[in-house]
Structures are given as structure tokens and as C-alpha cells.
Amino acid sequence: MTTSIASPAAAPTAAVPQIAAVIDTSRVADLIHQLLAELGEDPTREGLTGTPDRVAAWLNTFLSSDGAATATCFTESQLGEQLVIVGGMSVWSLCEHHMLPMNLQVSAGYVPNGEVVGLSKFGRAAQHFAGRLQVQERFTRQVAEYLGGVIGHGDVAVAVRGVHLCMSMRGVRMEEARTTTLHSGGRFGTDPVLSQQFLALTTGLWGAP
After folding, report:
1. Taking 70 as the threshold, does the pLDDT of residue 195 lie above it?
2. How far apart are CA 23 and CA 177, in angstroms?
3. Could you tell me where the DSSP H helices lie in the chain?
4. End-to-end CA distance of the chain, in Å?
5. What tens digit of pLDDT does each residue of 1-36 get?
6. How far apart are CA 9 and CA 20, in angstroms?
């Protein structure tokens, strides 16, 4: 397991994540057709005739994810010092180094201050930032910074546990390898009790390797 820990250098912003540009599926299909030929396949044979179009359509859907959507916040003045963790979020992304899939298990925690965030928005944010060529470290930071902008302060922590096919099916081919990244902001970076609570609950959600 590889663990990296990062803290934001600046205050969170509520900037809306950028949406990927429109993909020319016809051009992509043509390139896939050429790739199959270069790999020694016959793109016109039975079984492959529709493959370029299918791959292009999938890439268009996967890499043109919707925006993270405007987060809904609900006023709740009597919260006390609660820790809210949303876990069990599983998203797929593509490693930008080898264009192979990676599965990311995401847990996000924050300390509400007068209002709570609609729970579905955590999953939408994770899906949005996963729907592009990525690295896990950047993905973790992007989700944390976006959530910080939504709640209006930096008391946010995001932990991600990834399975990378670029490590499982190529190179060293270690199928059991897992990569863990942690972005701790605000009180999560300065309060050891809060940090330990988040990590204990998050690792409990992940279970055994």
C-alpha cells in the first residue's frame, strides 16, 4: 500500500469543475479502426465490425461526464461538533499514463457548520472528477477542494483507495496492490483526534485488503 498525504495551500473555492470538450466520435472510431489494423487484426471481420464505433461511443460517454451539479445545502443549526463521513463510493477512472482503468473507493468527511450538504452530491463530485484521464493523487485533491468550496471552509478530508490495472495487469503484475491517498484540510490536518476518527471509520468501511 502506498499512502500520500496532502493539505491544501489555499482557501477552498466554490468554482464549478470544468466539463470535458465534445469528442468527435467518428474520428475516434476511425482511429480505433486503424489501431486494430496496426495490431494485426482485421477490423472488417465478424466480431470486430462494430468495435470501433462501440469504443468511440464508450469513450464519449465516459470522458464527457456531467458537471458535479450545484450542491444543495440544508440549514441545520443544532449540529454540535459532528463528524460526517460519506463512504462506499466506488468510481472508475482511466490512468493517464497507460490509459488503463483504475477503480477508486472514495470516502469524504467534513465538519458541518450551520448546514449540511446533500449526500448525493458527494457521489456526483467523485463521478465527475473520475470521468477523465486521471492520476489518483490529483483526483483526491480535486474532490477535496471542490467539497471545501461547497461547504465554505476547509475542514474536509478525502481518502481514496485505488486498484490500478496498470499495476495489476502490466509491469510487476501485482493484483493485490492497493494505493491509498489522503487529503486532509483545515481541522483534519491540525486535530489529531478528528483525523484519527476519520481514518478509523474510513478504513473500517474498506474492510480487508
Report:
1. yes
2. 33
3. 25-38, 51-63, 120-130, 136-151, 165-168, 187-190, 192-206
4. 9
5. 444 444 343 444 444 445 446 889 999 999 999 999
6. 26
Output the nine-digit C-alpha cell for 192.
Answer: 489529531
Asked if the model's pLDDT at residue 143 lies above 70, the reply is yes
Q: Which residues contact 137 (CB under 8 A, 6 or more apart)?
A: 4, 6, 181
For 64, the grid coordinates are 464527457
Phi, psi of 90 (to 5 degrees): -120, 120
| Per-residue pLDDT reduced to its tens digit, 83-101 | 999 999 999 999 999 999 9
Contact at 8 Å (CB) between 147 and 158? yes
What is the full DSSP assignment across 3-39?
EEEE--SS----PPPPPPPPP-HHHHHHHHHHHHHHT
Please state, rounded to an integer, the average pLDDT across all residues of the chain.
86
CA 112, 68, 154, 161 dihedral sign is: positive
Model-level pTM? Answer: 0.84
Sheet holding 2-6, edge to edge: 2-6, 179-184, 156-164, 101-110, 84-95, 133-134
Query: Angle, nearest 10°, between helix axes 120-130 and 136-151?
Result: 140
